[in-house]
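Follow-up to my post from last week.
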Amino acid sequence: MTPQSSFMVVAPIRSEREGELRRVLAGMNRANGQAGPLNPLIPFQALESLHFARFVVLDDSTTDDIGVYGVPVPTYPHALAFLGDIDGDRDVFMRDLVKHAGNGLRQVFLCCEGFTESTDLVQWMDEHEHRPAAYYVNWRGRTMRQIREEAAVATAVASYLRANQTVPRQPPRDLHATLRRHFEAEVAAGRLTLAPEDPTPLRWWIAHAVNLVALPLIALVLLPVLLLYVPIFAYQLRRREKRDPEVIPPLDPAHVSRLAQMEDHELTNQFNAIGSVKPGRFRHWLLVAVLSLIDYGARHLYFRGRLARVHTIHAARWVFLDGGRRVLFASNYDGSLESYMDDFINKVSFGLNLAFSNGVGYPSTRWLVLDGARNEQKFKSVLRRHQLPSQVWYNGHTGFTAHHLERNARLRRGLQSASLSDRELADWCRLL
Amino acid sequence: MADISTSAVDYEDVQGLIRFGHGKLSRACFYALQIRDAAAARHWLRQAPVASAVVRKPLPVSALQVALTARGMKALGVPSAIVASFSPEFVSGMAGDEARARRLGDVGNSAPSQWRWGASQRTPDLLVMLFASAEAWPGTEAATMNSLWREAFQSTACLRAADLDRNEPFGFADGLSQPEVDWEQSRVIRKDETEYTNLSALGEFVLGYRNEYGRFTERPLLDPVAGIDLPTALDAPQKLDLGRHGAYLVIRELRQDVRRFWQYMHAQTGSAVEASRLAEAMMGRTMNGEPLVQCGGRSIQGIARTPENDRLNHFLFADDPNGERCPLGAHIRRANPRNSDFGGPAGGPVSRLMHSLGFAAKEWRDDRVASTRFHRILRRGRKFGPNLTHEEALRPARADDPERGLYFGCVNANIARQFEFIQNAWIMGAGFEGLTGERDPVLGTRSGDAHMGPCNTFTIPTAGGASRRLYDLPEFVTVRGGAYFFLPGIRALRYLATVGGPSLGQSGG
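User reply:
Got it. Predicted complex:
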């Protein structure tokens, strides 16, 4: 099994070169923020282990909000974030990336502070790496290679069934045997390939196991202290929840329209939201704890197709910026933003509240998980207002929802099985 | 604060259309109008005999309803700050931007640029909906379109409906399933509804009341000014509620190609009986309205236990999870999935917690469809064009063959969450229920995006075997026009017809 990982390079933009940067980024697109898959600057598609990638100009229009707490409003220079979701080791990927897109990346990063003609690209990107505080991948181990191969299998099966319209009417056992014969013939002829899984890297296993026990262990050690802290925590939390102001001004229609222009060109969409963490150590450490918990959940519970009840997210991350004062949330999801928010509100409002209620201006919560996102219209407004467009977005498996990827995987497994139980056979037939 | 959740509705102030479909008034015409003279328009609107939602006996022989677009409000001189405080979808309009058209599936032949009315210069300012019995029609229409009307308005489109009967143009029994509006506000709205309910919160269809989240949908609230006669806001008693007793009205002219529909069904099957079967699979109901899933065994809140409902409406798709009786992509499954907040049964608190955390799904494809109760609409459309029998439909059209279709109309409080969601995620959703390359078999546009190819298949799951799949479905329905309207409360209508005039309150009411 090849586990997935991520990268995110963040660097301040030289203000005098922001216009140029935006032009360079736009030059990678075929339309509306959608990357040309083989554009000459960064031929994303040539990077075979790349699922998603994007460039986002971190131009946060909500930084003033923190002023409602009477604290000084910091100014953040516009920064560029370059992030992606990949198979295997980050460092290996970055070297491969530089090999394919070194010149393009240089052209981009020359518009950023601290990058010159003579800068070592790999080293510079390593220095500007921002690891996610929480990271979710829909299906751990589903590699780009597997996705491509299984998509080809699904297409081959669909065309075979279309060309041979009596085949679908065969009894299930015969149908399975017929399709298996066809499939094996296609494999033998070299038209379909299904590479076996690579072994799971030992280093990853060790890190994974350590992570699995570390959090419970820390919790166990701290348990007496935590128990004593609970009433104090409850007091601290409720006191803040009662007085934390909501910041929900009317949305700027031009902002919404700019974002909408980039959305719904295909089944999957990109999403970024940025915001400031509420001032004070309490909220900061609460958010650190919550994101650690989400990250733990994503590693050990939710790595097989759904994040709690939400099954439309391909990949998502929360990343601290500016020494923890701001957070970027970035995700790739299926369907429209309205349906994405609907899932957030109706299915996982508790999770959204846990994480986002530590952000300035969020709709009021009770006990960290109640209300908040359930205040439907305020929540949608807040989310849209904090949203940032992706200047460039690449989707390596465009045309497939997470559901389709799982369907293809099941279809392939069924074809590779010589014998299926009656139940397995019935389930498998439903995939056709 | 006083209990504000059960404040009785002032039916005098609600336009009748929200409460009644005017089903006893067989004739109807919707006039999409632009304002020629603002003063005359204000005058006409102030004195228009708008039908309220009060039950009258004997039944009136006619009913007039009025709705405005954002453009119409501006033309009437309503201050732009007030117009801007309506919902963004309403302000932008149905054809307002390309992203919306993309989401609604208004592309290709259905793109706003192809519309007969509703886009750019053909956007109406208002919609006057007139309903009457056949006998009363001539007199009612003449009285409505008086000299002041002619001075005030010019026609953008005249949507003359066919006389009401039970069938929509393809020949299916129509108007069988509607949400039951909880006018009495008797339902306790819980955070999680573990059963499908057909009883919808009043605030889903009437602004100014609690919606399915137990909240008040955003709408314009005004500071009180002497001389303004508007209801107060239940959630902000110091404010006047311009939205209260009003709703958003979505109108779309949908052309139905009846010949193409039946010719396709015949070409796929070869016999009249089989052609009907196929069409029924696409619709999810038989021609006379019976659902393809088992009906009658379920008791559903908000659906009265009558023999008719036992035959037509007491059913859930949970009884057919794999779509072997009613295909997963059938029209009625897309338009109203009839599920609960959990997408399946949920028992006690532990079971609910497991559900919420995502550990309760048994099958990998469970729980894929959004909870229905947040996405309901009250349909108020009428069909147009002469009926065409199944046999006639197989013959080629004469050159003067009239158009047929539906003036789709629906009432909702939140266009984005209700009408647009249903249209985008369910009707046009190419990922609905995990299907591939298909949208609503009846209503859907067949164009895909740049990556997935056309969406022109239809899948009919079969018990214990591979699905039957139909290919190359043509488009049976084309959008020919449409707009988002605000259907104001009656006092709000008088206010909107006054506020832009020379001096406020001069001739209000």
